[in-house]
TrEMBL record, chain A:
Residues 5-130 form the Na+/H+ antiporter MnhB subunit-related protein domain. InterPro entries: CPA3_antiporter_subunitB, MnhB. This is Multisubunit sodium/proton antiporter, MrpB subunit. Its main location: membrane. It comes from the Bacteria. The chain crosses the membrane at residues 12-29, 35-57, 69-92, 112-134. It is a multi-pass membrane protein. Belongs to the CPA3 antiporters (TC 2.A.63) subunit B family. GO terms for cellular component: plasma membrane.
TrEMBL record, chain B:
One of its GO terms (cellular component) is plasma membrane. This is Multisubunit sodium/proton antiporter, MrpC subunit. It comes from Marivita hallyeonensis. Keywords: Cell membrane, Membrane, Transmembrane, Transmembrane helix. The chain crosses the membrane at residues 6-21, 28-50, 70-95. Belongs to the CPA3 antiporters (TC 2.A.63) subunit C family. It is a multi-pass membrane protein.
UniProtKB/TrEMBL annotation, chain C:
NDH-1 shuttles electrons from NADH, via FMN and iron-sulfur (Fe-S) centers, to quinones in the respiratory chain. The immediate electron acceptor for the enzyme in this species is believed to be ubiquinone. Couples the redox reaction to proton translocation (for every two electrons transferred, four hydrogen ions are translocated across the cytoplasmic membrane), and thus conserves the redox energy in a proton gradient. Residues 667-747 form the MrpA C-terminal/MbhE domain. The lineage of its organism: Bacteria, Pseudomonadati, Pseudomonadota, Alphaproteobacteria, Rhodobacterales. Pfam families: MbhD (PF13244), MbhE (PF20501), Proton_antipo_M (PF00361), Proton_antipo_N (PF00662). This is Multisubunit sodium/proton antiporter, MrpA subunit. One of its GO terms (cellular component) is plasma membrane. Keywords: Antiport, Cell membrane, Ion transport, Membrane, Transmembrane, Transmembrane helix, Transport. Its main location: membrane.
Length: 139, 119, 752
């Protein structure tokens, strides 16, 4: 497909979707969203980019092989789960740290659960792109 | 209300079974997509339908007053993603079958079990 | 001969030595337990294995198991020493030694196990390792066939045995063997006694090659001779006898037990002795005498009297000693002359004096001449036979006949080749190296030694064994060479006369037997027919079930689903359908109609684009359901996945041919409607039953206070059930990588 408007449009749209996907993932613990939805949204952005421009350009923009991303995601999710064992809890127990905790406000929460969700995000994102890129290229 | 969707699921299942039984791989794939949708919907409906109360806890409260059943939602959410993985793998397999065997009729694919063996 | 390799006294280096040392160390260890057991104590050792089922890793050393252990480890050591020379330089000696040692250890485990399940594990291990050993010369077709036959027969028996053990455990409420025995007579009155007995005996009779399962044992002679010596003297075949002996306290004394064991034991003993006399191959002749010994042991286990039990314990030891010795001697003869045919052997006595003397000692013990242990064993056998309360004449007659035949066979096997006739032409036999002579000589001397000093055996092993069998050591009768002028003595004299007469006429008798046995069906040939039939049956049912057509497999699967659901609903009684449509709003009906329309369009269209669009309609309809019924996360996921599915289908579809016109298939249509209807009915049933919301409520109240998340679905996914989610994303990665690999091979394949 060789449409200038499509090319220009999709590159912005892809960036926008990527930012939006991270937002979806981060808010997932309290609002609709999360790693699965975020990963799918981000992947959709890149799929659009690949359709609008080309798979080669999409790969270039991604810089890393999508399957590498998927496997790193799996590894991060596992590490987040194993992290609980360091504190003697059962595996995959959430660990929380609240920065700037006050009486009324819990402050900025950091948690192994968020890390796990990032892992999920990367897995879904990487797997979908692995599939779509390969199919676009090979078929 | 659940009964209405139970009937809908029945129609979906019937259509997908008929598609999967047809001796053509593309129709089989369509049936696969439909039946995984039907399965997700079955889990969701079996967990009861609640109108207008998402399983979100309002700020300031410790638990929702009334909320849809969150458990089947979590199950269905992952099932959708896995169903997608299965679908993608299946369609690649079909494509691969087409490129190497030049057929989309599974009954004609007898590379591993040649017809001669069945006498 | 079959074993190939040249005799070489140097053995097989370290591979040969380690197993010998290992077996020797085991023997020494078990010897060190003799004083404890001789003082009539038992040693029990256990660790929990599967505590939830009460199964233990339990071992028990008492008279019975220690007797077996000493025979196994002792003969095992001698056999390994012998094999190291017999198979010297064999390219697969390491494998052989491994199998033999593994077999020995399994056998030890079998006799020591004090838990039914543990017993079964070792039981099957002996079956498997003996399969490896019988089929050791795997290049030979016959060897493979006979190994497989042994595996099938004993394996089939093993299945029955397992069923029997499970019933036994269920009936007695424990898997501990000593626990079952401690329950006394309770088992005999149990309703399941008969099935348990039948199943256990099916296992032990196949393992111990009792008629009518006797045919595998002589075939197992395909194994190298030392294996035959080991398997058919002390071990494998005695496993069945061991289990019968072990269960004797708990199960004997009923009419079924008495008559099954007595009659089949007697038949096996006589039948096998006759078959044995018929053989011209030394090894085959010995193989059948093993059957005879097993029959006799079984016969005695059928009884209750102290004489019978003492006879069992003594004959067990006697037989192991002389049988192992004779097998090893046959191996020596085979090795030095190249044949095992009696007709071609003769005059070896002068050339192989040590072998000849060992053979003479073992054979006189086997024949039951004084002052050998065999004589004591025979006297006790007669005493035990006479003590049979109901049918002493039948039992004594069977024992007398088999003993006389045994005497004749002993002459054929161990006397004739050495002291009669001339050395065959073209043979230059010479004495085997000491490693091969050690076994026969030691075993033969032990037979004589125990005959002269029976007290040694009495205190160390026989009394404790009788204690294991009856629970009372007073039941043990005294082992003595001279018991006075009594009926057993007369029977012994009758045996000698009859036996010598048979020996003198054995060539003629053999010819007669040949005619006789040709008249009765040969189970061994029947076996081949049975296997062929089984293969034909398998091929037939494979053709029937495995059509190779995807649609027929799917048809069977869906049919089963529909039938299963409908039959279950019919059986449990379907309550009246309470179809309540009062709360249905127009948006619900329209979504349902949308989905149904999409599904039907996918079904009927022949246009690929229309089909993709229709699938999209269904997907979006389902997403709408999720939106309407408060599942925002699921709805978003569904929409995104629908988008991606359409992208993928569109990409692939470009390269695939268009759809053929759909043809109507009534059978498929009926089944489809049936499956759909059954799912609908099932779901209506499900929503009509009360919903258990405990888990959901737990998630609702803990989601915020404990997991700090307001989106309960997400908290379930990444916190409460994070391990599940991890598994699921792993599946996603695997699916993606597999599809990727499939696509990449396409390109690679195209290049080649």
């Amino acid at each position: 497909m060789n449409s200038v408007i499509l090319r220009a449009g999709t590159s912005y749209l892809a960036g926008l979707l990527l930012v939006f996907s991270v937002y979806m993932m981060l808010r997932g613990h309290n609002e609709p969203g999360g790693g699965f939805i975020g990963g799918l949204t981000g992947a959709t952005g890149f799929v659009l980019y690949a359709i609008g421009c080309s798979v080669g350009e999409a790969r270039k923009a991604l810089r890393v092989l999508p399957q590498t991303i998927a496997i790193w995601g799996l590894f991060i999710a596992l590490a987040a789960g194993l992290f609980a064992a360091v504190f003697g809890d059962a595996l995959f127990t959430g660990q929380w740290l609240f920065i700037g905790e006050t009486e009324d406000d819990k402050g900025l929460p950091l948690s192994s659960v968020l890390v796990f969700d990032i892992g999920v995000y990367l897995v879904v994102f990487g797997s979908v792109l692995t599939l779509v890129f390969a199919m676009e290229e090979e078929i | 209300m659940e009964v209405l969707f139970a009937i809908t699921i029945g129609v979906l299942v019937a259509a997908s079974v008929y598609l999967m039984l047809s001796n053509h791989l593309l129709r089989f794939i369509f049936g696969l997509v439909l039946i995984s949708n039907a399965a997700n919907l079955t889990i969701f409906v079996a967990g009861r339908l609640t109108d207008g109360a998402p399983p979100l806890i309002p700020v300031g409260a410790d638990a929702p007053e009334i909320a849809a059943n969150a458990l089947p939602q979590a199950l269905v959410l992952t099932a959708i993603v896995i169903g997608f993985g299965l679908f993608a793998f299946a369609i690649v397999l079909v494509f691969r079958a087409w490129t190497s065997l030049n057929s989309l009729t599974p009954d004609e694919m007898r590379l591993a079990e040649p017809e001669e063996a069945h006498k | 001969m079959a074993d190939g390799a040249a005799t070489d006294a140097r053995g097989n280096g370290i591979t040969g030595v380690i197993p010998i040392l290992f077996a020797g160390a085991l023997f020494v260890y078990f010897m060190s337990l003799v004083p404890t057991v001789a003082s009539l104590e038992a040693i029990r050792w256990s660790v929990p294995w599967i505590p939830s089922l009460g199964i233990e890793f339990a071992f028990l050393v008492d008279g019975l198991s220690l007797t077996f252990c000493l025979l196994i480890a002792g003969i095992g050591t001698l056999v390994l020493l012998y094999s190291n020379t017999y198979l010297a330089g064999h390219p697969q000696y390491a494998r052989f030694a491994l199998f033999l040692t593994a077999f020995m250890v399994s056998m030890l485990g079998l006799v020591l196990a004090d838990d039914l399940i543990l017993l079964f594990v070792f039981w099957e291990l002996t079956t498997l390792t003996s399969y490896m050993l019988i089929g050791f010369s795997h290049e030979a077709e016959k060897s493979r066939r006979n190994a497989l036959q042994a595996l099938f027969v004993t394996g089939a028996g093993g299945l029955a045995f397992l069923a029997g053990l499970i019933l036994l455990a269920a009936a007695s409420g424990t898997t501990s063997i000593s626990g079952i025995i401690a329950q006394g007579d309770g088992l005999k009155a149990h309703a399941m006694y008969l099935p348990i007995l039948i199943l256990l005996l099916a296992g032990t009779f196949t393992k111990s090659a009792q008629v009518p399962f006797h045919f595998w044992l002589p075939n197992a002679m395909a194994a190298p001779t030392p294996v035959s010596a080991f398997l058919h003297s002390a071990t494998m075949v005695k496993a069945g006898v061991y289990v019968m002996a072990r269960m004797h306290p708990a199960m004997s004394g009923t009419d079924v037990w008495l008559w099954t064991l007595t009659i089949l034991g007697a038949i096996t003993a006589v039948f096998a002795s006759l078959l044995s006399l018929r053989q011209t191959d030394l090894k085959q002749a010995l193989a059948y005498t093993t059957l005879m010994a097993l029959g006799t042991l079984t016969l005695f286990l059928g009884q209750e009297s102290g004489y019978a039990m003492t006879a069992f314990a003594t004959f067990l030891i006697v037989h192991s000693l002389y049988k192992a010795a004779l097998f090893l001697i046959v191996g020596c003869i085979d090795k030095s002359t190249g044949t095992r045919e009696t007709d071609q052997l003769g005059g070896l006595g002068r050339l192989m004096p040590i072998t000849a003397i060992a053979a003479a000692l073992a054979a006189t013990s086997m024949a039951g001449f004084p002052p050998f242990l065999g004589f004591i064993g025979k006297e006790l056998k007669y005493a035990g036979a006479i003590a049979v309360a109901s049918e002493p004449i039948f039992v004594a007659g069977a024992v007398l006949l088999s003993n006389a035949l045994m005497l004749a066979v002993a002459g054929v096997v161990a006397f004739r080749p050495f002291w009669r006739g001339q050395v065959g032409t073209g043979q230059s036999p010479k004495e085997a190296p000491w490693q091969m002579l050690a076994g026969p000589v030691i075993l033969a001397i032990l037979g004589a030694l125990f005959g002269i000093y029976p007290d040694l055996l009495q205190v160390a092993l026989v009394n404790p064994t009788v204690l294991s069998l009856t629970g009372e050591v007073e039941e043990a009768k005294e082992l003595q060479l001279w018991a006075g002028v009594n009926i057993p003595l007369f029977l012994s004299i009758a045996t000698f006369v009859l036996g010598l007469a048979i020996y003198a006429a054995h060539v003629k008798i053999r010819a007669m037997l040949d005619r006789g046995f040709n008249a009765i069906p040969n189970l061994d040939l029947k076996w081949d027919g049975f296997l062929d039939g089984l293969k034909a049956l398998a091929a037939w049912q494979t053709r029937l079930v495995q059509t190779g057509k995807l649609s027929s497999y799917l048809f069977a699967t869906f049919f089963t689903i529909a039938a299963g659901i409908i039959l279950t609903l019919a059986y449990t009684g379907m309550p009246p359908l309470a179809a309540d449509f009062s709360d249905v709003e127009w948006k619900h009906t329209s979504i349902a109609a949308l989905i149904c329309a999409g599904a039907l369009l996918t079904l009927f269209t022949s246009s690929r684009i229309a089909a993709i669009a229709a699938l999209g309609v269904v997907g979006i309809g389902i997403a709408l359901i999720f939106i309407v019924f408060s599942a925002p996360d699921v709805a978003i996921t569904q929409l995104l996945v629908e988008t991606l599915i359409v992208v993928l289908v569109a990409v692939v579809m470009l390269r695939l041919p268009s759809l053929p016109k759909a043809t109507f298939n009534l059978k498929h249509a009926v089944l489809s409607v049936a499956v759909g209807a059954s799912i609908t009915l099932m779901l209506i049933e499900v929503v009509a039953t009360p919903l258990d919301l405990r888990l959901t409520e737990y998630f609702e109240v803990t989601s915020w206070p404990e997991a700090y998340g307001r989106n309960i679905v997400n908290v379930i996914l990444v916190d409460f059930r994070a391990l599940d989610t991890f598994g699921e994303i792993a599946v996603v990665v695997i699916a993606a990588l597999s599809a990727y690999a499939l696509l990449r091979t396409t390109r690679k394949g195209d290049q080649q």
